[in-house]
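User: structure tokens for this one?
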Amino acid sequence: MADGSTRRVVVAIDGPAGAGKSTIAKRLAARLGFTYIDTGAMYRAVSLWALRRGVDLSDMHRTEQLAKAARIDLEPGGRVLLNGEEVTDAIRTAEVGEAASVIAVLPGVRRAMVEKQREMGARTSVVMEGRDIGTVVFPNADVKVFLDASQPERVRRRLIDFQAQGQPVTAETLEEQIRERDQRDRSRAEAPLAQAPDAVYLDSTGLTIEQVEEEILRLVRARVSNGKDFR
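Assistant:
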């Protein structure tokens, strides 16, 4: 149904930092046979390039130029390539994450990324996660989910992620970063983080990954496949 069909299906998962979007989207894409699109990784890739080039992150013109010129490839298994170089691990540092949250509010950067994301969604069925997929990138997505979790839970998850990567960071630092990122995401002028009117709200606090996955699969089956089961 995914790649071989003329029917292109878009599953959009939006939500704040640390809600579990990437983990769930990867699993869903694998179950459905769809392509997983990590839009956050795309912004991080542009941010990494900007940091390496010494570009001022508030320079709207230069950051937009980089966003337009960046060749970003998202490969199976979560591999991310920037202009042919694998940057899967390099884009996951706290520094790059903070930089990404800064340039993501710039209108020119967002427009460039949205164009790339729409091109990806036009080629094949996708599970795409981010902050504005259901509201801006694919307002007509077949399935829209707004995935959320309490702030303490989101801090806990991010702390586990950074510890697994061997990056020294405290819970207090992460709490402040998430609070600031939430504020930037929700208050930016260009495509602020918001739940689409037709999106299903899902609070993952206290739920297992498997429970969240099954709940969203149920939505996909109901809205896309007339009850047909997926892999």
